[in-house]
What does this fold into?
Amino acid sequence: MAQHQRNLYSIKSVGKEIPVDAADECKVRMAQPKAAFDDMGNVRRLTAKELAALRGKDRLFDAEFSDLSVGQRVRVLLVKPKTAPAAPGTKEAIKLDDYKVQASRIVILTQPAPK
It folds into this structure.
């Protein structure tokens, strides 16, 4: 009976690309700080005071769109699009670009594994 229960469900992984535009005020944040280097080019550990100074109010670190790369795990906060006009038969031109899904915040959780 346990074997039949185990085989009752099967998990399938499906990938799908969904285009998401960044909102005008989209912020990029990082869960871990950027690496700091000393004069010799070695990676230096940040002290607790330095980490506290770099953190924002949301306990995350500042980042930029240039910090995003392929292979990173990110969390994207989506903004609900504007609602479409109630009367679809009106003669007004509806701009579909105004109703696309937008990202208001992107948080970089992990970096890609080195090859």
Q: What stands out?
A: DSSP finds two helices and six strands in the chain. The chain has a mean pLDDT of 85. The beta strands are 21-30, 36-37, 43-44, 61-62, 73-79, 102-110.
